[in-house]
Structure formats: structure tokens, C-alpha cells
């Protein structure tokens, strides 16, 4: 009798078929009025680390964590939260 093992990841609970590309990222960031043009460019650069073939939800979450825990940038916690909400809503 074969033994099948299925993980949560295999079942797709943490995956999304959507991919976020640079152009759409720019559009989403432009919808966040609290961000200055310089802050938007900074956020694009952080996300750009993961954008080789587009950004998956997992990669977006990694970029958001990086923004959240980088205390040397000019983003405050409310701005990072707005970015998180806007970007992750793309994947739902």
C-alpha cells in the first residue's frame, strides 16, 4: 500500500497563483498617498530584490518584513502597514 504525505504547502494554503510585476507594484504604491516619491522608490528597490520573474506572495511578505524591521529607513510603522495591506490585497 503506497504512503502519501501531503504538506500544507502542497495543498496550496500558503500559495497564490498571482504574480506581482514592477508596473503593478508602482501602481499600487501610487495609491498610498502617505508615501513620498522617495519612499516609493525605496520600497520599489526593496521589492526589486525579489522581482526577477515577478514577485510571489511569499516574496512580497519577505519584502514587507524587511521594511518592517529596517529601523534605519524613513518609513514609519503606519506607512509599512499601509504598504502591507495594499500589496497583500493584490494576492487575494
Report on the structure:
This protein is mainly alpha-helical and 92 residues long. It has four helices and no strands. Helix 1 runs antiparallel to helix 2. Residues 1-13 have low confidence and may be disordered.
Cα(first) to Cα(last) distance is: 38 Å
Query: What is the strand content?
Result: under 5%
Find the count of extended strands (DSSP E, 2+ residues): 0
Largest sheet: none
How is this fold's topology laid out?
Elements: H1 22-30, H2 37-48, H3 57-69, H4 77-90
List its traits.
globular; 92 residues; mainly alpha; disordered N terminus
Summary of the model, kept short:
This protein has 92 residues and is an all-alpha fold. 52% of the residues lie in helices and 0% in strands.
Amino acid at each position: 500500500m503506497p504512503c502519501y504525505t501531503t504538506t500544507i504547502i502542497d495543498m496550496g494554503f500558503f500559495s497564490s497563483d498571482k504574480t506581482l510585476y514592477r508596473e503593478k507594484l508602482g501602481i499600487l504604491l501610487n495609491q498610498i498617498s502617505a508615501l513620498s516619491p522617495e519612499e516609493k522608490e525605496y520600497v520599489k528597490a526593496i521589492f526589486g530584490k525579489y522581482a526577477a520573474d515577478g514577485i510571489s506572495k511569499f516574496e512580497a511578505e519577505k519584502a514587507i518584513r524587511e521594511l518592517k524591521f529596517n529601523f534605519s529607513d524613513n518609513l514609519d510603522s503606519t506607512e509599512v502597514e499601509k504598504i502591507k495591506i495594499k500589496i497583500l490585497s493584490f494576492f487575494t
